[in-house]
Amino acid sequence: MSKKNKLEKVKSYSSDSDEMMRMVKILVILVGIFLVIYLVFAYFNGEFDSKDTKEKEGIQNVEILAGTTFTRADYEYYVLFYDFDGDDASRYSTLYSIYTNNVGRYHIYLVDLSKKFNTNYVTDNVKSVNIKDINSLKVVDGTLIKVENNAGISYKTGFEDIQNELFSD
Q1: What are the angstrom distances between the C-alpha of 150 and each of 69, 100, 124?
Q2: Do 103 and 150 belong to one domain?
Q3: 16 and 60 housed in the same domain
Q4: DSSP three-state, residue 52
Q5: Cβ-contact 82, 89 below 8 angstroms
Q6: Edge-to-edge strands of the sheet including 76-82?
Q7: Of 82, 86, 128, 142, which is the most exposed, with the fewest CB atoms less than 10 Å away?
């Protein structure tokens, strides 16, 4: 074999390994991009809160976004809106637990008003609370909406009114 053939063979091997390295680099970059996108979405969804993992797992089967308030499969149900990190969060959480474990006539969904996707539906003015449809939905921290046939039929604000509604029958 001549020197020229040996050089071409060495160049061929090195160009193959260079091409392989480029493909590995591209793959690593793509995985990195997807990881960054995931982390950004997870951050805005509040996935990095300091809540206990078991508590979070227990909530996930009933926690919904405010935008899906009127689109649940149940014919009649409640939706309880409150800030899971707020001052009254433990009171509402206890109220929910007692209702679901004892009374529970209707399914009850929870909406965390501290999540970024739900902030568009929050108002500070109790008088502007509205339940006509999703386009006009406005709630305050501590609002219970009773939904029937995908339409809001009643709402209560404040802990005592919500408690009376849930345990009235």
Answers
A1: 8, 21, 25
A2: yes
A3: no
A4: coil
A5: yes
A6: 107-112, 76-82, 143-148, 151-157
A7: 128
Number of domains within the chain = 2
Q: What is the pLDDT of residue 49?
A: 64
Q: Is the pTM of this model over 0.85?
A: no
Q: Give residue-wise pLDDT tens across range 104-147.
A: 788 899 999 988 888 888 888 766 566 767 877 888 898 898 88
The pLDDT of residue 67 = 86
CATH number for position 95: 3.40.30.10
**Structure token digits, residue 14:** 């090195």
- pLDDT tops 60 at residue 8: no
Do residues 79 and 140 share a domain? yes
In a shared domain, residues 160 and 81: yes
pLDDT > 70? residue 153:
yes
Burial (CB < 10 A; 0-12, 13-18, 19+), residue 17, is: exposed
| Segments forming the whole domain that contains residue 150 | 53-166
Q: Are residues 88 and 123 in the same domain?
A: yes
Selected residue with higher pLDDT from 153 and 28: 28
